[in-house]
Each structure stands twice: as C-alpha cells, then as structure tokens.
Amino acid sequence: MDWETLEEACRTCHKCALGDTRTNCVFGTGSRTAELMFVGEAPGEQEDLSGTPFVGRAGQLLNKFLDAVDIPREKVYIANILKCRPPENRDPLPAEEEACIGYLREQVRLIRPKVIVCLGRIAAMKLIKPDFRITKEHGEWFRKGDYLMTAVYHPAYLLRDPRKKEDMLTDMKRLRAKLDEMN
Ligand code: URA
What are the phi and psi torsion angles at 75 (to 5°)? Predict the structure, then answer.
C-alpha cells in the first residue's frame, strides 16, 4: 500500500465506533524517511480538533524533551496506536486497538525506521510485549525483528508526576546516544 491509499483508508475508516465520534483522524506527522519513530496511545482533544498528534500540553512537553537532546521534531515520525480519539480520553479498548493497529503496521512498513520509541505503557504493551512494566522497563532496549525498540514515560504521565521527568531525560539521552552510535 502507498501513503496516499493508506491515509485515505484511515481518514474514511469506520472499523470501530470511534469513526463516528472523531472530528479528525489523526494519521501521523513528520518525516516519512525517519530513522526514529515515536508511537503514542491515542489522540486527545487538541489532536482530534487539529488532526495532528501531540499538539496539546503533553505534546508541548514532548517537544521540550526532543529539544533537550537535539532531536528536531520534523526529522522524526510521530503516530499513535489509535488514530481516533476515545471519548473522554479513556484507555483504548482491545477491539479498537485490533481494528486500528494495521494502519500503524503499514506506516512502519513504509517508513522502515531503525528505532521505535513507545510513549507510555499502552503503546509498549501493544508493540513490545503485553506484560510490559513501564516503571521497571522504561529505557531498556528490545530487538524486534528489524527494529530496535524502547519505551519512555508518556508525557501526559510526566505532567501528573513531574518527579519522573528526571528519568525521562535520562532515557532521552540514552536514545540520543543510541542514534549517534548507529550513525
Ligand atoms: N497523547 C497521545 O498518546 N497521543 C497524542 O497524540 C496526544 C496525546
């Protein structure tokens, strides 16, 4: 599948009920030749309204961490497990994840990033392993086929518990070092 077909399929998708309540499908943003891809959970209110991932408060905090380790946002690709906003930002339902994950898999197949970073436990449980423990395993590296994967705290979680920002900076520095080592 090519980008145009994939994006059109996503924008007109009604595989789950979130297709009825979305304002916009939040497909993904950034470089389609990125070496580094970030995957979050699902769009929030600002993302649903704008059609772009990570533009609300959590997104602004993510931008700060990207800046802190000199990773330009436009050089990475950012997407979510779910492309449509769950009502009241509740956790994605397993059936919604199943309905939607194919779009993300196609995005990964088209981009072929070297490194995939899961933002938060929901993405880590879906992409790395179902029993992923974010407090214990954030910042660890996992090799999954062609991809090197890790998970960091979700920026929305850091807004609720700012003490974890220190760990986030450590993980982001390790990510930066890994990218430097690969190039
Ligand atoms: N939280 C997410 O997981 N994704 C977004 O795009 C915004 C907030």
Answer: -90, -10
How much is the pLDDT for 42? 98
**Assigned token pair, 5:** 């077909």
Q: What percent of the chain has pLDDT over 90?
A: 99
Residue 122 structural domain: 3-182
CATH of the domain at 133: 3.40.470.10
Render pLDDT for 28-55 as a digit per residue (tens, 0 to 9): 999 999 999 999 999 999 999 999 999 9
Q: Is 49 left (phi over 0), alpha (psi -120 to 50) or beta?
A: alpha
**Could you tell me the distance, in angstroms and rounded to a whole number, from the CA of residue 156 to the centre of ligand 1?**
8
- The Å distance, Cα 58 to ligand 1 centre, comes to 7
The amino acid at 68: A
